[in-house]
Amino acid sequence: TREQAYPPILSVYPSRALVDEAFKVLVENLPPGCPVTVHSLHLSEDDNYWEAYGHYISDHRGSVSVSEDVSFGGTYTGKEPMGLLWSLRPVPGSRQGLRLRKMNVCTPMLVNISVHCGHLVEAFRDQTPLASVLTERWYMAPGVKRIDIRERGMRGTLFIPPGPGPFPGLLDLWGGGGGLLEHRAALLASHGFVSLALEYLTSGEIPTARLDYNYFEKAFNIIQDHPLVTPDRVGIFGLSLGSFVTFNLAAKSTIINPRCCVCISGFHCHPYRSMGEMIQTNLNKLHVDENNYQIWRDMSLPIPSDISKKVDMGKIKCPLLLVCGHDDQSYPAVELAEDIAQMVHAAGKDHLLTKVFYHGTGHMIEPPYSPHFRATTFMAKTKPKVILLWGGQTKPHSDAQEDSWKKILAFLQHHLYSTPNPRAKM
Amino acid sequence: MLEPAGSNQSAQMRCVRMDKKKHCVKLSVQPSRALMDEKFIVLVQNAPPGFQMTIHSLHHSEDGHSWEAFGHYTADATGTVNVSQDHSVGGTYSGVEPMGLLWSLRPVPGSKPHLRFRKMNVQTPMEVTISVYQGHQTVFVDQVQLASVLVERWYMAPGVRRIPVTESNLTATLFLPPGPGPFPGVLDLWGGGGQLVEYRSALLASHGFASLALDYLTPKITLKTGKMVENDYFETAYKFLQQHPQVSGSRIAMMGLSFGTTMTLKMAVYSEVMKLSCAVCISGSHIQPVNATVEEIFIMFDTKSEKTRISEENEVIWHDVVLPVPTDPGMKADVGRLQCPLLLIVGEDDQNWAAPESAQDIKEMMEQAGNSHLLTLLSYANTGHLIEPPYTPHTRASRFKPVGSNELLVVLWGGETVAHSRAQEDAWRKTLAFLRENLYSRKNSAVTFTSHL
Q: What family is this protein classified in (chain A) (predicted)?
């Protein structure tokens, strides 16, 4: 066709980037005023296709700039430079409850970006695009080293930034889904922190083991003992159950002294021996939504006033950053955070606590541009399969991921790299 | 797996020594992975205010040599140095030079002389270690780094496909951009050293051009038969591109450097088969016997060795070999007959080829013939012969073995590093714009292309 004689030029800059870095997607050499769809496609490690797209119109020079122009439709609308990533969702016909997670962090996430004629809404893979390029999204910066840790009964992965060091350290703890998730620790190492992703629950099993705090203290010591780590600059980063562990260590441990802690979507109130027991005890408060997705949130309400049922947060000794979403459907994270704040306040330690709450944001607050999932399979090997509602609306949740990560990195940089002083900026 | 605790002690001291408050300098380079022609931002943070430091780059080349560059900086009141904004007050470059850590790379002290940087394996990145040292240093061998990161510089963008080509007796490599295509094509020629040199084609494919790097002096067929190729070899390469399902047969350009320019002009002017959309000629000339074979032309340059000069440092200067510019029309490609746009790039300090003089003559010939509207001439002061992709370290003279000779000479290319490096950056940007204009753009719109470069 005549149009084919002058193909558009599509570029993504940078073509290789860390997963938390922004890119610019530019289409040039289109006819002026031409409607096009910019489309992203990713094949996950577990063989599912994810896609996102936006509807654009070229300007008088025949250009579309995803960073600057408005999307009129698709999986995102408005001016959204990174919409092609955070609005990725499983293609029509996929299984329910999928989650996009990279398990092998040594290779990049490959995303195909293409531009199609017209404003399409479906069947992208049946059409030949006008142009397409490949972009790489990396969890590991060049020179970051990945080391399997299997010692003293630990199971984890250590990520070390390039350079002579020494570096501050971080213990990275995920939630009740268990397993060994490396992607956040790899990214933190790419930002200059020696990070240990620690496995403390085997994935696929309902966590029934009593949490052994000795295990976490030993893991913390492993980081401190590493020759490239400054021992008094080691912090803890937790999400969900990992936050619960962090609260316990921060308030109660006599063996370790974290320099600071970051806790996402945490709870400090879990007077049960296991998740299973929590569910059994509160079955009447376990609701399901119209899709039969489980909503756990109410099982944690009301928050007891009896301090013996909670971690005594007034006992924390280090700065703590709490990040929560108002639309968290698995835990009442904001109410819990406010309860923590009261305890901290009563102990005269307000200066240690920073709370950041986001509207329209659910439980799974991941690094920026990670696709949002409102509900996913949790503990897949149980029968019947459980799908948990995490909450959040895609756009505000994605904004929260972007904003909270910046704040988290600044917080870690401030407390673990700089010497805090009144004149230092966050 | 873990080293003994003793070494931890000295590692910690590095931080303490700088300042009582235990600052730990933080170094970042963004992006940490990039194409060879893309810029980066080198940032040092968290140093004590006013702290003197050296930012250093180190590269171990494929042929086993070490190259380094460095700049001397002083941290501002916030303890920050931004190489893109701050002045280097000494080192291998000075002033505000965002990319000085790459283009001013030079062999480390003690290296063999007359080395040239060239990456032959384009499937792996050029790895550069960027480090920070305390104070304004000039020797780095036994120094302790405060911080260091690794940067990757790629010739191939993700998705670019590298395809060796051996059909029809060609010795070539095709680089295809990602995507369905079809793409405009570029036939890419290097100079008198021969070999199959891929990096420029890889980079062109990363910018949307199906680029064929062609070995025309030392292809397998020549090594086997002892005979140099003739015009039809280039025409075969052209037809290969033209017929390729992912190449737009009607939009093919030709690009040559040095002797590659001689061939490019020969084909652009005289070939009945090749209908080029445009041509790019770098550091070369139109001076050649018309209707001669490739071999005859190549030999012609050899026999003029009485015009070779030797510099005080024993470097071979071939600049005068084609001079004076002939008046005999039988000795110059008749550029007045060109029907496609021509981009001429020359360095005014070219010691290897009389490129600026040739360019002047080309301009006059085209003005007389009435087709000078096709000509764009870029002439760069203090720039030498080897006008490479941006940030390629400049080499003023290096060891060179021309095809057909057994002698390894030291050849003077010319150029002063700062000017030459600026010329490389500018010429490349303009080359890409020229190729896009002639191979991509729609006839009726005045298209300007945004560049990330």
A: Belongs to the C/M/P thioester hydrolase family.
Q: Which residues between 15 and 54 in chain A have a beta carbon less than 8 angstroms from any beta carbon of chain B?
A: 15-18, 21, 24, 26, 28-29, 31-32
Q: In this complex, do B26 and A10 lie within 8 Å of one another by their Cβ atoms?
A: no
**Which of 240-259 (B) contact A at CB < 8 A?**
248, 250
Q: pTM to 2 decimals?
A: 0.91
Strand, helix or coil at B230?
coil
Q: Which residues of chain A have a pLDDT value below 50?
A: 1-3, 205-206, 208, 421-426
* Domain CATH for A63: 2.60.40.2240
| Pair (A291, A395) in one structural domain | yes
- For residue range B87-128, what is the model confidence (pLDDT) as tens digits? 999 999 999 999 999 999 999 999 999 999 999 999 999 999
Q: What is the pLDDT of residues A302-344, one digit of tens each?
A: 999 999 999 999 999 999 999 999 999 999 999 999 999 999 9
Q: How far apart are CA B387 and CA B384, in angstroms?
A: 7
Contact A369/A333 with Cβ under 8 angstroms?
no
Range of the domain at A336: 145-416
Q: Looking at beta carbons, which pairs linking B27-30 to residues 24 or more positions away fall under 8 Å?
A: B27/A163, B27/B130, B27/B131, B27/B132, B27/B146, B27/B147, B27/B148, B27/B149, B28/A192, B28/B149, B29/B130, B29/B149, B29/B151, B30/A21
Report if residue A423 sits inside a domain: no
Task: Check CB contact of B373 with chain A, cutoff 8 Å.
Answer: no
Those residues with Cβ within 8 angstroms of residue B209's Cβ, 6 or more apart along the chain or in another chain: B177, B183, B184, B185, B186, B253, B435, B439
Domains of chain A: total? 2
Of A61, A136, A227, the CB nearest to B158: A136
H helices, E strands: number in chain B? 9, 21
Q: Pick the catalytic residue from A116, A363, A372, A415.
A: A363
Do A216 and A351 reside in the same domain of the chain?
Answer: yes
Q: Answer yes or no: A363 catalytic.
A: yes
Chain A segment 172-211 residues within 8 A of B by beta carbon are: 190, 192
Q: Are A237 and A365 in the same domain?
A: yes
- For residue B23, list chain A residues with Cβ-Cβ distance below 8 A: 418-419
Domain boundary at A115, A138, A161, which?
A138
Judged by a CB distance cut-off of 8 A, whether residue A14 touches chain B is yes
In chain B, residues with a C-beta closer than 8 Å to the C-beta of A160 are: none
In this prediction, residues B392-418 reach a mean pLDDT of 93
Report chain A residues whose CB lies below 8 A from the CB of B448: 61
pLDDT in tens, A333-370: 999 999 999 999 999 999 999 999 999 999 999 999 99
pLDDT digits (tens, 9 = 90+) for A260-295: 999 999 999 988 877 778 888 899 999 999 999 999
Which residue of A39, A133, A151, A196 is the best one to mutate when testing the B interface, meaning the one whose CB has the most B CBs within 10 A? Answer: A133
